[in-house]
Amino acid sequence: MSFTNRREILFLYTVKDANPNGDPLNENHPRYDEDTEQVLVSDVRIKRTVRDEWVRQGKRVFVDGEPKTLKARFEELKGETGKGSGGEVMRECLDTRLFGVTFALGNESFSWTGPVQFKWGRSLHAATFEFIQGTSAFATEGRGGREKEQRSFRNEYKVPFALIAVYGIANQYAARITGADDADLEALAEALWQGTDNLITRSKNEHKARFYLEIKYRTGFDGKIGALDEKLLLCPADGQELTRDRQKALRRLDEVLVDVTPLVNAMVGKKDDIETVRIIKDRELRLKGEDGLKALGFSNIELR
Amino acid sequence: MVLVFDVSADMAMFRKPYTTTSLVSFPFPPPTAVAGLIGAIAGFDHGAARGSWRADFWRHLSGTQVALSFKKAPSWMMTAVNMIKFKSPSGDMGEHIQAKHQLLKKPSYRIYLRGGAVYPELKRRLASGEFVYTPYLGVAWALADVVYGGEFAETEVIAENTWVNTVVPLYEGVQVDVLRSGAVHRELVPYRLDEERRLQETVNVVYLDFKNKGRLWLKEKGKLTVSQVGEERVAWFGTW
């Protein structure tokens, strides 16, 4: 049975000396907001992190990241699942049940809006972007098959430090169409955390999950708090003003506290509509207003 | 009576047609996007799970009229999104599509609605802060915050020469006072689709340039209907 309770999701992670999400048409420069100098991360990147983790765990996903045509992938899945139609096969895939799909192959054409929708992630502070050049490992082959004597350079961008917030909604009505259930949402929560920690590639090292909060509303509640990511304030650990320059000079998580007071106040306003709250917190993350979060009485905070 | 509600988001994109490899956005949700937003809040399934071309919610919008104003000046950003090119069997990055996107940053709009069978259900949902399907501004990741402004009485503005707060559809006989308005922008926007998502009608509109802090003035309002709603003057799109 599809899930019946609406949820709101807030996820925080840190990036250190890595490229959170390059813009392919801007020399892979990290996406950012020119006005605020905040790092941006597309929803596509966030969902790729989750899907990669599901693939690692052996779960069935439609967009598995391998180079193949839609037709080839569909035929593979038909073989695996023993199902025939596009709709039936898509219901067997965790990612399409949660994130939706636009399917157009042969005579079948349909579109599911995913029950889970993520906003683009955004850092809670202004960041800097460093351009780094290095020497490539090997020389390329020259004319006549002779090896060149010089190696070429490689260019890359890195963000020295960013604390990024991601916000999403899980909608029970859209779940009726795709068949996403409570176990799927549990798999999403785990994959967000584990998948972020497992982003061990050259450009994504080091990513670290820091905070996960999931508000599960009571059955029948059709509202939301909305934009949970904007209900966090970043405070400097030393109590000094966190100017734009100081934000850009942040290099460690212990230089800041995340003030959850506006979030707690918003949750107090919806207290009667909330069934449970699940919170996972990294041991290194320091929250301001954590007692208020605990006092809501919905959840213990799981430390990782 | 007129329902008034505000919608805002971190980003938005209301894609213009025929912008296939570089996705260009209208600066505001055209009436067709407003229709989808109303359908999501009120809970009309578009039916696309049974056929991607379907837009069943249009059957519920007959008799409804909308108007729209900017709550802040549009600001833009350009970026590319790396999308999968399913039709190509190659795996290198060149076989993805790096589609340029023109996105609106922190957009915020006010929407006015009157008439139609959707009115009572929309009012009930808005007043209780509810929605059935998740509202978004143009693309699924542009999650929208919807804030109910209230229900207001309206009086029709009779004078030909009037200012307006909203985007103005250029219906027959409408004459914009450009000199008095300072500067205005013009767009051709989709206004109505049928239940199979086929475009039925477009309309030319004008809106004020926000560098100019004045008002958009009309010399003649022709066949346009303008209402006084609270302290705002609203130019209505035609009835769906």
Automatic annotation (TrEMBL), chain A:
Give the protein name, as stated in the record.
CRISPR-associated protein
Instruction: Say which species the protein is native to.
Output: Neomoorella humiferrea
Query: Could you tell me the superkingdom of the organism this chain comes from?
Result: Bacteria
| GO annotation terms (biological process) | maintenance of CRISPR repeat elements
* Annotated NCBIfam families: cas_Csh2, cas_CT1132
- Which InterPro entries is this protein grouped with? Cas7_Csh2/Csh2, CRISPR-assoc_prot_Cas7/Csh2
From TrEMBL, chain B:
Keywords per UniProt: Antiviral defense
InterPro entries named in the record: CRISPR-assoc_prot_Cas5, CRISPR-assoc_prot_Cas5_HALMA, CRISPR-assoc_prot_Cas5_N
A Gene Ontology annotation in the biological process aspect, one of them, is: defense response to virus
For the keyword Secreted, the answer is no
Does Glycoprotein show up as a keyword for this record?
no
Q: What is this protein called?
A: CRISPR-associated protein Cas5
Lineage, opening ranks = Bacteria, Bacillati, Bacillota, Clostridia, Neomoorellales
